């Protein structure tokens, strides 16, 4: 699977909510085509916005191939510049095996010391290089049902495959707000959190995140986000022993069936030994274990109303983005349990 990670300088008055999306037009690919993509960065990231584009259709494949060819043919080692239509903002294309990451670099200067968006420093030649321009037109942002997540006590976020992208912005925003309450002692470097922390000041008290995917290939960027959230949450719980876990993560790999064959038994043994020794999952590097096969939605939703979830059971909201067939099954079980269901189309 091929993926383009596109980071663009954020326009001055561009405001959005977690889960919002924008339409993108790249005239050099198709002059009059606009395509919607979820913003995967958080509103708290003031300098840039980010989208992830999976090469699955004609236009997205052309976008991937265009940037891939540009980066492969860029023998000078200088950055390739992409410009937003309303304000020129330089970004750098960095080629990887399956993912093309486009990041914001430092602008170059011309001989007069003036900032020039057309110039960048070449690490290979040690000289300033003239670069081509790439124009990108943004239209939006537009809201989705995902923004209702903050209006409930308990949110169950379910993503199927690339359907996890709407939740990247939400989790990033939660993590940014979470970090705002963190305080570090200048003398002993002890980390504490404000008494009136994020969870005390908002309605949302608990988030369960479930990701169902054949594998995690090309989603390393999202696993990094989950890993960082786990670390921040662990640090928070260490300094607040009376607090409950805010985010629970469950991953399901459907590319590997869960049965009682010899291979499966050995796989479980190896993964369990690895988790005991290393303290993380062998497939993802997360503290949360990976399950094989598909979730038992009836059992999973039933458990959501029991145990530690009983305090928020009356206000559980399910948010889903993924394949239609999966969504229909989940919606059916939500009706049985009287749980409010939201689905985002993609």
From TrEMBL:
Gene3D superfamilies documented for this protein: Nucleotide-binding domain of ferredoxin-NADP reductase (FNR) module, Translation factors
Transmembrane segments: none
Catalyzed reactions per annotation: NADPH + 2 O2 = 2 superoxide + NADP(+) + H(+)
CDD domains linked to this entry: NOX_Duox_like_FAD_NADP
Superkingdom of origin: Eukaryota
Single Gene Ontology BP annotation: superoxide anion generation
GO molecular function, one term: superoxide-generating NAD(P)H oxidase activity
Keyword entries, A-Z: Oxidoreductase
GO CC annotation, single: NADPH oxidase complex
InterPro entries hit by this protein: Cyt_b245_heavy_chain (IPR000778), FAD-bd_8 (IPR013112), FAD-bd_FR_type (IPR017927), Fe_red_NAD-bd_6 (IPR013121), FNR_nucleotide-bd (IPR039261), RBOH/FRE (IPR050369), Riboflavin_synthase-like_b-brl (IPR017938)
Stretches assigned to the FAD-binding FR-type domain: 1-105
Protein name (record): FAD-binding FR-type domain-containing protein
Annotated organism of origin: Rotaria magnacalcarata
């Amino acid at each position: 699977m091929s993926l383009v990670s596109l980071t663009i300088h954020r326009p001055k008055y561009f405001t959005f909510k977690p889960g919002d999306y924008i339409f993108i037009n790249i005239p050099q690919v198709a002059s009059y085509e606009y395509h919607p993509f979820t913003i995967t960065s958080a509103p708290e990231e003031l300098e840039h916005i980010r989208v992830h584009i999976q090469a699955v259709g004609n236009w997205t494949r052309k976008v991937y191939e265009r940037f891939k060819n540009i980066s492969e043919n860029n023998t000078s080692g200088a950055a390739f510049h992409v410009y937003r239509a309303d304000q020129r903002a330089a970004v750098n294309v960095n080629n990887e095996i399956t993912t093309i990451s486009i990041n914001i670099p430092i602008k170059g200067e011309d001989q007069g010391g003036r900032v020039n968006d057309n110039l960048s420093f070449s690490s290979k030649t040690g000289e300033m290089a003239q670069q081509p321009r790439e124009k990108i037109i943004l239209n939006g942002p537009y809201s989705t049902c995902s923004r209702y997540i903050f209006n409930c006590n308990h949110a169950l976020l379910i993503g199927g495959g690339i359907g996890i992208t709407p939740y990247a912005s939400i989790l990033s925003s939660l993590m940014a707000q979470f970090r705002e309450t963190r305080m570090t002692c200048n003398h002993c470097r002890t980390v504490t959190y404000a008494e009136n922390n994020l969870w005390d000041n908002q309605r949302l008290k608990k988030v369960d995140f479930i990701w169902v995917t054949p594998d995690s290939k090309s989603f390393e960027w999202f696993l990094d986000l989950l890993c960082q959230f786990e670390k921040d949450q662990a640090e928070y719980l260490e300094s607040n022993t009376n607090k409950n876990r805010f985010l629970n993560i469950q991953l399901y790999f459907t590319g590997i069936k869960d049965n009682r064959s010899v291979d499966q038994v050995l796989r479980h043994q190896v993964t369990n030994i690895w988790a005991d020794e290393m303290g993380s999952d062998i497939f993802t590097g997360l503290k949360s274990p990976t399950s094989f096969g598909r979730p038992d939605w009836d059992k999973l939703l039933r458990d959501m109303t029991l145990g530690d979830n009983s305090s928020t059971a009356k206000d559980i909201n399910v948010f889903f983005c993924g394949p239609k067939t999966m969504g229909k099954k989940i919606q059916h079980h939500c009706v049985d349990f009287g749980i409010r269901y939201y689905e985002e189309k993609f």
